[in-house]
Amino acid sequence: MTAILPAKSIADRLTTLFWRKPKLLLALLITPPLLWLGVIYLGSLAALLLQSFYSIDEFSGMVVREFTLKTYGELLRPQNYDIILRTLTMSAAVTIGSVILAFPIAYYAARYAKGRWKAVFYLGIMLPLWSSYLVKVYAWKLILAKEGILTWAVTQTHTNFLLDAALALPGIGGNSLSTSYIGMFLVFTYVWLPFMILPMQAALERVPTSMLEASQDLGATSSQTFRTVIVPLALPGIIAGSIFTFSLTMGDYIIPQIVGNSANFIGMAVYQLQGTAGNTPLAAAFAVIPIVIMLIYLSLAKRAGAFDAL
Fold it and tell me: What is the pLDDT of residues 222-249, one digit of tens each?
């Protein structure tokens, strides 16, 4: 007696086809993200690069679609060069400040926090990221204002002289923290600090306890162990975190508009040139600068093994 098998459904046929040809399934899975990456992301970057080689007609204000390096030459003008230098300085300062603040937090979480306390640590680090970016920035604007809670706190503790001395510093001071580079630095560091802590904590967790014990057995002091063992092994995590803090600070245009003295940064310049001024080629040239800097930085970070800590 011959058994009568039910007809295969389309799902069964597809399952059989994909089982016999796994490369076909792989191609179907990766094609949509590759199209998104190639057309939307890389395509927009290519269009941006192309725009940067155009120029703006000074009389009509129209974009001249002819290949030229004139727009990149405009970046060397004093006002544009100052924008680039100011942005890179702030990005470097925020990165260094984030490293100094994040290291003890990450080290405690990696070496001492266990079980429930480690969950509390992750919750405490991630919780600020769940709130609105604009709400956090405006909240800091109020905190740093001349009538804000920080001014009230230094008044109550009779430490006004410290705040006044900080605001009197040439170049970075101002009338209040909310209108100074110091305040902008504080806000940038607060907003991007979690992006430094997490990769640094992951790198520190990979430091073998046996190496720390071996360093102590060989007579090394705590400071020597820190310099020669912990820091070199944690360096990939530090570099990985700096990729986030440096690039995010360099491209941000919201914080400099809300906090600080309205001095231009690369992100603000791109926003203003693209929107208000209508100088798309110069905006594109400004936007290419962070891309080039980060490509160089990423290549150096890859050599240092930073991506292993991501």
Answer: 888 888 888 888 888 888 889 899 999 9
Q: Are residues 160 and 20 in the same domain?
A: no
- Taking the model in full, what pTM does it have? 0.83
Total structural domains within the chain = 2
- Same structural domain for residues 26 and 80? no
Query: What is the span of the domain harbouring residue 33?
Result: 12-40
Co-location of 80 and 229 in the same domain:
yes
Verify that 118 and 26 share a domain, yes or no: no
Q: Rounded to an integer, what is the distance from CA 106 to the centroid of its chain? A: 18
Residue 195 near residue 97 (C-beta atoms within 8 A): no
251-301: pLDDT as tens digits: 888 899 888 887 889 888 888 887 666 788 888 888 889 889 988 888 887
Burial of 19 (0-12, 13-18, 19+ CB in 10 A): exposed
DSSP secondary structure, 189-227, as one string: HHHHHHHHHHHHHHHHHTS-HHHHHHHHHTT--HHHHII
